[in-house]
Amino acid sequence: MALVPYDGNYLPALSKLHNSSVEFDFAQHHVRLTQDWNTLGVAAVVWDAAVVLCMYLELGQVELKGKVAIELGAGTGLVGIVAALLGAKKVTITDRKPALDFLAANVKENIPPDQLAAVEVSELTWGQGLERYPEGGFDIVLGADIVYLEDTFPSLLQTMNYLCSNSTVVLLACRIRYERDTKFLNMLKQNFMVQEIHYDKERDIYIYKALKLTRKDL
């Protein structure tokens, strides 16, 4: 997740991003997240893609209980927090170093004390230091609105390839804004089987499911 501070002269439609906090009800819990657009920019606000992905997870279409999950470019941590509240056995919530203290504070505020040991906040810059994570060691990889900077596509794909085994389920929530977004999906299809599984018409958010191709599939 890029760290991009934003000018205070913003459009009214974006005003909710400048609120100091935002609240949701997910997984029978009240979730209150701090936002900090002025300091951390896009990494510190809740985007619609994260909300839609959490709504989808709450539907139970993907089994989380007992699973090991990781969230990429977590920002405020909403998706990873909800995954933990829905019963994931272990959740690693990642972002770049400047966002970690902010992210950890949101996790601490919203995860019950008896579940905190199962949630880890960890630095992950895509394509760097991957050896610190278990190769193919995650059942579920989650990403909300992480497909937007074309320069990051190769490192994001490298990271996904490393983290996923042939049984890992990848869920990506995003808005298809530009030709480059479609380009990313085409790049992803070189190593993953990709399927659109949900579309939120009101928010114009797609959710894609990706499964790593085996040697037989390639």
Secondary structure layout:
Blueprint: E1 21-26, E2 29-34, H1 37-40, H2 48-58, E3 68-72, H3 78-85, E4 90-95, H4 100-110, E5 119-123, E6 138-144, H5 153-163, E7 164-174, H6 179-188, E8 192-200, E9 205-212
Parallel strand pairs: 3-4, 3-6, 4-5, 6-7
Antiparallel strand pairs: 1-2, 7-9, 8-9
Helix pairs in contact: 2-3
Plain-language structure description:
With 218 residues, this protein is of the alpha/beta class. The chain has helices spanning 37-40, 48-58, 78-85, 100-110, 153-163, 179-188; strands at 21-26, 29-34, 68-72, 90-95, 119-123, 138-144, 164-174, 192-200, 205-212. Strands 5-4-3-6-7-9-8 form a seven-stranded mixed beta sheet. A two-stranded antiparallel ribbon has the order 1-2. Helix 3 (78-85) links the parallel strand 3 and strand 4. It starts with 20 loop residues before the first strand and ends in a 6-residue tail after the last strand. One of its GO terms (cellular component) is cytosol. This is Protein N-lysine methyltransferase METTL21A. Its main location: cytoplasm.
